[in-house]
Structure formats: structure tokens, C-alpha cells
């Protein structure tokens, strides 16, 4: 049985904040109490569903019948569930020592907007929203299958964050699902606001620098992943979903690849891998060739590079580090700046500074070309988090190339490959060639032997 | 399709033989039975490989230590594991030192040999301590990139103006000379890829199919014959024995007038940095897995200790030795490997029989 004193005490505590409303309605015969957070509640709904029927009521039993018949309205039987409900957007109705909760939320962050981070040419243009119900709606509307399961989870200390774990129960790998759910339960410390944050908390290794779960904002990618047997996690309040397990290729493929004809799709993927190679290796190649092995290229080419480096007093790695530092700062600055200033920053930094640095004899003109190639090629990686990770990879390679030339460059690249190949994302090998096999996570169709 | 992983160690051993002084030794005996040695090696090598694979596939997902565990006394299995492990560790070490000499001579003349050894050792130690599956995925990715370049270099060599078929015809007059055991053992190195199964079999959790086994003798024959004959064709029957870095010098005589990189030797060197690193990682991985299986606790620390000791020993030996000694070590190694392989295959066939 519900304890009235306890509820009284709780309500008094709640009323300390200004946006907690306490209303007493009377219609001559009866009076009821209404409690809610005015900032969370759609007052129009309350007016229509509660106060209007109430005004024509003549007895408490009649009022109780009305509320019983109302959708999303139920009697509160445990005082402990009262506060969480109030915080979720319920309002509390009380009369005659009975308590009802009525769901009337005001949601303003569920407006579907265009995808900003993963734009697409031919794919559906809209992205997830900040509201999980709207997201669930977007996903279930696309994935019209009763196999799609949704599990609600609460994680973290107070205030708890709400997660929704989604999977197709026919194709999901059961062991992976259990492992993931266990990991979610194990999370304790933090207050989770973003998908990337959750990913860090879920990751197996502490010092990880390649993301092992995919963060996306595109419903079509989510649905495609679900059909592959992957698990999708939505974080309430974040317009990004987490997908696990993920393999390296997932980060390198855009959804557009599937909407184009076969050869165009293949060509785009190859283009991306070439860009990946360039953005990782080009600065290191420059150093290795300039400082250690100028005899590799044709004589004319070697001479023209040497000519453009004539005014540069420093050895090549100083030049490379100087230019790369500038471009990293430029990228970092233009992400956080307001849009209008951002374009100014890029113009000043990119055009004027580059030109001036070359004329001042700080860097060679070939280096300017290399820096811009590295920066542009970096943005070709479709998933942002991978693009950020790739930005870091070139620096160890630069160290290797500075010390050991071409030998060091290839050794460094070898190390990077070894690192990738040794990674596992929830039991799946993260980086390996696949041919003749079905999608790696589609366990039911897996061929062995 | 997953069966493709079975072939990568074979290809790797075939590729690495130009670094491992196989062509140098074969060319040395070109008038004393190298031809027949190659022929015998193709027959014996693939037969041994076939027998060994047929036995190993009865134990899917098990390496040599696991197979021995219940069937042999602990002492005997430890001795076998240790000596096989040492054999592979030495193989990796020889290739590492041999390649750092090549790197010193052709890529980085200004860097002291100690530093080059250090670079290769650090990278190989890191790679060797990864998981067996990782080594397999790694070899696939690297070989996919490398094989087209290797085929291109071979094609380029055959196209070369200096390539003289007459020089090769001269050697065919000595085709029926009886080879020494040494030469045979050297030539058989090309087929030794199957030996990696002693550890890599842990990765093959399914029954290895032998339907495409014919690929092994065919590619082995192509590799052996071309690594033996192309240097003779390019340098001439007599002059060929003057070269220590036989294949590097052979490839260095090729030129691509319109290529982005003009001298073909740089493609070769770049490819062989990766091939050598891959071979060293794989052999040291096999070595450390076998040696650490002697100590029952399979902790990661053991592997790091073993790899560390191996790395320091290799570095030390690399500083002291020279090419001449290294070739002698390689020759001895081929001989020992030949005998150990025969014994091992015999043992495994017996174990396989008894299981049936």
C-alpha cells in the first residue's frame, strides 16, 4: 500500500524548484491535485484530457473511470516510482488518497533534420534526432520486421542515462549480444551524454586509438547494420547511434556506395583506400626520399624537388612537422569556430599562410602540395571518428622515416598493419581481407572450410 | 575459401628464398647438380608437404604441442618443441641479418648496421608476439599487395635485353650431375612452408582441404627455376658467381624508362622489406609459441621474454658476423632443417596412423 506521508515529504521536496507546479482544481463538488514539472509537460494535453473531463465530473468514482479509460494513464502503486516518472514527463494526479500518473511530455528535440556529418548524394537525407522515441520510430519504420528487438537499459550513476539496445533476433550473434549487455551493466561511473563517450566506456582496451564501434547518424546505415546482424545502441539525448561489432571496412564505406552502380561503388572504395594511403604515408615518404634516398625517383624529379628546397635551411622533418602542425591547428580551429568566422580562418590559414611560408623560405613548394593532399585525403574517410584516428597515424610513421628512411617507412607501415590486424571488435577480426565469405558479422550464413 | 590461408606460408617461404641465399648456393653448384636438386626438391618437397598436411588436418585447431601432449612423454615433446622452435628462430634471425646487410648496402649506406638491426628487430618482436590469427591475416594482406609487384619484376627480368637464353642453355648440359645433399636441402627450402603448420594449425579449426594442393608443386617449381635461372640469364654463366647479393644485383640491372620509379631494384627492395619482416615475424612467432609451450604457463610475459632474448641475441650476432659466415650458417641450417623435417614428418605420419 502506498505511504501518504512519504509522498507528501517527496512532493514538498520537489516543490523547492521553481518549475515544479502544484495545482488544485475544484469544480464545486470535487477537488483534485495536479503535480508536474512545467518545463517537461505539454499543458495543452493536460487541459484537454484531465481538466476538461474533470469539470463535468460529479463523483470521485466517475473521475477514476475517466482516468482508467485514458491512454498512458495508470495508477501509481509504489511511491518509489513517482519521482522517476515525474522526471520523464508524467504528471501526477491525486484525489481521495489515490494517485494517478499521466504521460503528457513536451518534446522539442525530436525534429528530424538533414544529416550533417555523413551527407549523402542519393541516400535518404535525414539523420537521427536527439529524442530516442523519434529515433526508434525512424528505425522501426525502415526495418519493418517483428524480429527487431529493443531493450531498454539505464546506465551510470545519477542522473542515469537511458539506452536502447536494438538487434535483429534472428541474425544477431548471441555471444556478442550477451557480452555487450554485460559490459553495459558494468558501467558505473559517469553520466553519459554522447555515443562516443559510451564507446570509450565499453571498449575493451584502455589505450585504444582506432575506434572499434561505429558511430553514425544515418538511419539507413543503422538499418543496414541491423540486417547484417549487428547491434545498435541509441543513447537518449544523442543524435548518434553506436554500432557493434564493426570492422575496418565499415568505416571506409559510405552508404552511397550501395546506391550507385557496382563499378562506381567499387571505384569509390578504391579511391578512399588510395587517399588513406596518401594521408598516412605521404609526409613520411617525403622525408624518406629527401633525407635518405633521393636516388629513388628519376633524376629530373629529384633535382626539381631539391631546387624547390634550395631556400629551406632545415632538414626535411622540421619542415614537415612545421607544416603539419599548422594544418592540424587550422583544422581544429575551423571545427569549433562559428560558421562565418570559420571560412575566414581557412582562407587566412590555408591560402595566405601557405603562400607566405613558402616565400619566406620556411617550407618548399612541394611541401605545400603534400600538406594539402594529406589534409584533403584525410577528409575522404566517411566516418568522422575514423578520420580523426587516421590523423594521428602519420606521426609515428614520420618518426620511423626520419630515423631509417624507406626501410623505416615500410617498417612503420608494417607495424600499423600488425596493430590493426591484431584488433578484435567484439570477437570479430577487425581488419582482414574478405572474399568469398558473407558479411563477417552475419554468423548464421558463415562458411567455414 | 578460408582454406586460402594454408597457402600463404608456402608463398612466403618461396619469396624469401632470394634473401635466404638459396639462389646463391644453387648458382654455386650450377655445374654440380643444381638442376637435379631442383627436380628432386619439387618431388620430395611436395610429397613431404602433402603427407604432413594430411596428418595435421586430422587434428584441426591443434598445434604440435597440443598434439604431443597426450601421445608422447613430456621430455621428448619438450625436446622436439624446443629444437623446432630454435630452428625457426634461427631462420628468422638469418633472414633479419641478411636483410639488414642488404639494407645497409642498397638503402641506407649512412646508417650503422646496429641501428638497422635494431629497427628490424623491434618491429619483428612486436609482430611476433601477436596472435596466430593476426599473423595469418597479416600475411594475406601483405602478400596481396606484393605478389603483383613480384610477378611484374619477373616479367620485367625476362623482357630484359641483357637476358641471354644461351647462358641458361649452357647449364642444361650439366643436368644429369648428381647433386650433393647440401644442394638438395637448400632447394627444398622453397617447400618448407608446410612446416609452419606446427603452430599455425591452431588457426585452422576446420579440415584443410587438399583439392588445390597442386598449386604447391607448380608455384614451387616456377619459383625455384626462375630464381635459379634468371640471374644466370642476366649475368652470364660464369659471372653470376661473383655476386653476393645475387638477386638485388640482378634486379638492379633492370630499368623502367617511363616508370614513376626508374630503377626496378627499389620496387624489389621495398617489397622485400615487407616480405622479410613478415617472414621474420612468422618464424619468430612459431619459435616463441613452441618454446613457450615448454613452460606450462602460457602467459604473455613468457613470450616477451623469449622474443626479447632472441632479439638481443640476433642483434649481437648481427654485429659480429659477416656475409660469408652468414651463408655458411644458412647452409648448415638447410641441412639441419632437412633432417629434422624428415624425422618430424615420419613421426607425425606414425602418430596419424595410430590415431586412425
UniProtKB/TrEMBL annotation, chain A:
Pfam families, per database record: GerA
Annotated InterPro entries: Spore_Ger (IPR004995), UPF0353/GerABKA_families (IPR050768)
GO CC terms, sorted: membrane
Regions crossing the membrane: 231-251, 263-291, 363-383, 395-421
Regions annotated as coiled coil: 177-204
GO biological process assignments: spore germination
Keyword terms, alphabetized: Coiled coil, Membrane, Transmembrane, Transmembrane helix
PANTHER family for this protein: LEUCINE ZIPPER PROTEIN 4, SPORE GERMINATION PROTEIN
Similarity comment: Belongs to the GerABKA family.
Protein name in UniProt: Spore germination protein
Organism of this sequence: Brevibacillus fortis
UniProtKB/TrEMBL annotation, chain B:
Cellular location(s): Membrane
Gene Ontology cellular component annotations, sorted alphabetically: membrane
Name of protein: Uncharacterized protein
Topology in the lipid bilayer: Multi-pass membrane protein
Residue spans crossing the bilayer: 7-27, 33-53, 74-99, 111-129, 141-158, 178-200, 212-234, 264-281, 302-318, 333-352
Keyword terms, alphabetized: Germination, Membrane, Transmembrane, Transmembrane helix, Transport
Protein family according to the UniProt entry: Belongs to the amino acid-polyamine-organocation (APC) superfamily. Spore germination protein (SGP) (TC 2.A.3.9) family.
InterPro entries per the UniProt record, alphabetical: Spore_GerAB (IPR004761)
Domain of life: Bacteria
Any GO BP: spore germination
Organism: Brevibacillus fortis
Amino acid at each position: 500500500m502506498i505511504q501518504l506521508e512519504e509522498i507528501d515529504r517527496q512532493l514538498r521536496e520537489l516543490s523547492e524548484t521553481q518549475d515544479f507546479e502544484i495545482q488544485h482544481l475544484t469544480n464545486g463538488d470535487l477537488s483534485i491535485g495536479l503535480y508536474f514539472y512545467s518545463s517537461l509537460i505539454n499543458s495543452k494535453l493536460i487541459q484537454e484530457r484531465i481538466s476538461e473531463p474533470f469539470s463535468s465530473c460529479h463523483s470521485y468514482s466517475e473521475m477514476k473511470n475517466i482516468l482508467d479509460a485514458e491512454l498512458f494513464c495508470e495508477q501509481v502503486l509504489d511511491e518509489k516510482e513517482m519521482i522517476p516518472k515525474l522526471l520523464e514527463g508524467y504528471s501526477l494526479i491525486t484525489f481521495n488518497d489515490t494517485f494517478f500518473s499521466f504521460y503528457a511530455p513536451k518534446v522539442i528535440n525530436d525534429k528530424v533534420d538533414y544529416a550533417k556529418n555523413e551527407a549523402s548524394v542519393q541516400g535518404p537525407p535525414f539523420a537521427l534526432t536527439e529524442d530516442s522515441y523519434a529515433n526508434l520510430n525512424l528505425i522501426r519504420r525502415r526495418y519493418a520486421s517483428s524480429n527487431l528487438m529493443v531493450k531498454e537499459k539505464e546506465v551510470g550513476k545519477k542522473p542515469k542515462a537511458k539506452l536502447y539496445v536494438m538487434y535483429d533476433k534472428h541474425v544477431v550473434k548471441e555471444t556478442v549480444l550477451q557480452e555487450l549487455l554485460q559490459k553495459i551493466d558494468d558501467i558505473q561511473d559517469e553520466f553519459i551524454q554522447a555515443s562516443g563517450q559510451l564507446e570509450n566506456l565499453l571498449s575493451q582496451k584502455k589505450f585504444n586509438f582506432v575506434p572499434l564501434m561505429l558511430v553514425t547518424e544515418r538511419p539507413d546505415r543503422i538499418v543496414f547494420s541491423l540486417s547484417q546482424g549487428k547491434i545498435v545502441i541509441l543513447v537518449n539525448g544523442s543524435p548518434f547511434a553506436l554500432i557493434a561489432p564493426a570492422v575496418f571496412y565499415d568505416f571506409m564505406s559510405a552508404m552511397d556506395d550501395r546506391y550507385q552502380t557496382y563499378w562506381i561503388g567499387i571505384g569509390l572504395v578504391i579511391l578512399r583506400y588510395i587517399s588513406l594511403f596518401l594521408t598516412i604515408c605521404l609526409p613520411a615518404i617525403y622525408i624518406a626520399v629527401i633525407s635518405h634516398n633521393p636516388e629513388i625517383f628519376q633524376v629530373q624529379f629529384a633535382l626539381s624537388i631539391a631546387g624547390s628546397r634550395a631556400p629551406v635551411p632545415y632538414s626535411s622533418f622540421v619542415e614537415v612537422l612545421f607544416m603539419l602542425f599548422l594544418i592540424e591547428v587550422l583544422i581544429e580551429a575551423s571545427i569549433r569556430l562559428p560558421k562565418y568566422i570559420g571560412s575566414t580562418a581557412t582562407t587566412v590559414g590555408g591560402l595566405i599562410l601557405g603562400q607566405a611560408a613558402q616565400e619566406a623560405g620556411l617550407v618548399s613548394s612541394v611541401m605545400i602540395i603534400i600538406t594539402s593532399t594529406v589534409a584533403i585525403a584525410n577528409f575522404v574517410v566517411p566516418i568522422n571518428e575514423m578520420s580523426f584516428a587516421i590523423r594521428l597515424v602519420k606521426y609515428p610513421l614520420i618518426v620511423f622515416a626520419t630515423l631509417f628512411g624507406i626501410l623505416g617507412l615500410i617498417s612503420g607501415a608494417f607495424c600499423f598493419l600488425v596493430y590493426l590486424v591484431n584488433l578484435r571488435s567484439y570477437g570479430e577480426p577487425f581488419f582482414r581481407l574478405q572474399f568469398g565469405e558473407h558479411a563477417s558479422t552475419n554468423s548464421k550464413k558463415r562458411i567455414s572450410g | 575459401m578460408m582454406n586460402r590461408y594454408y597457402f600463404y606460408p608456402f608463398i612466403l617461404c618461396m619469396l624469401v628464398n632470394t634473401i635466404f641465399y638459396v639462389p646463391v648456393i644453387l648458382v654455386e653448384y650450377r655445374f654440380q647438380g643444381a638442376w637435379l636438386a631442383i627436380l628432386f626438391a619439387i618431388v620430395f618437397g611436395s610429397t613431404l608437404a602433402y603427407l604432413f598436411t594430411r596428418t595435421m588436418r586430422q587434428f584441426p585447431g591443434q598445434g604440435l604441442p597440443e598434439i604431443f601432449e597426450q601421445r608422447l612423454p613430456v621430455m621428448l615433446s619438450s625436446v622436439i618443441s624446443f629444437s623446432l622452435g630454435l630452428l625457426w628462430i634461427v631462420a628468422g634471425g638469418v633472414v633479419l641479418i641478411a636483410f639488414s646487410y642488404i639494407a645497409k648496402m642498397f638503402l641506407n649506406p649512412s646508417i650503422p648496421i646496429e641501428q638497422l638491426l635494431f629497427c628490424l628487430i623491434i618491429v619483428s618482436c612486436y609482430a611476433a608476439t601477436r596472435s596466430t590469427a593476426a599473423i595469418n591475416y597479416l600475411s594475406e594482406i601483405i602478400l596481396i599487395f606484393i605478389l603483383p609487384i613480384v610477378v611484374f619484376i619477373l616479367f620485367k627480368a625476362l623482357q630484359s635485353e641483357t637476358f641471354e637464353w644461351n647462358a641458361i642453355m649452357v647449364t642444361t648440359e650439366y643436368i644429369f650431375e648428381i647433386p650433393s645433399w647440401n644442394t638438395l636441402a637448400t632447394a627444398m627450402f622453397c617447400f618448407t612452408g608446410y612446416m609452419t603448420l606446427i603452430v599455425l594449425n591452431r588457426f585452422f579449426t576446420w579440415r584443410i582441404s587438399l583439392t588445390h594442393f597442386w598449386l604447391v608443386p607448380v608455384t614451387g617449381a616456377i619459383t625455384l627455376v626462375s630464381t635459379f635461372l634468371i640471374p644466370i640469364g642476366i649475368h652470364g654463366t660464369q659471372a653470376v658467381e661473383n655476386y653476393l647479393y645475387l638477386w638485388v644485383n640482378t634486379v638492379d640491372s633492370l630499368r623502367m624508362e617511363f616508370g614513376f620509379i626508374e630503377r626496378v631494384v627499389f620496387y624489389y627492395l621495398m617489397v622485400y622489406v615487407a616480405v622479410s619482416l613478415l617472414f621474420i615475424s612468422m618464424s619468430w612467432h612459431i619459435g616463441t609459441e613452441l618454446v613457450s609451450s615448454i613452460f606450462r604457463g602460457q602467459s604473455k610475459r613468457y613470450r616477451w621474454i623469449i622474443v626479447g632474448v632472441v632479439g638481443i641475441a640476433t642483434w649481437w650476432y648481427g654485429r659480429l658476423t659477416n656475409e660469408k659466415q652468414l651463408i655458411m650458417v644458412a647452409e648448415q641450417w638447410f641441412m639441419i632443417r632437412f633432417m629434422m623435417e624428415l624425422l618430424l614428418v615420419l613421426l607425425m605420419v606414425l602418430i596419424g596412423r595410430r590415431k586412425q
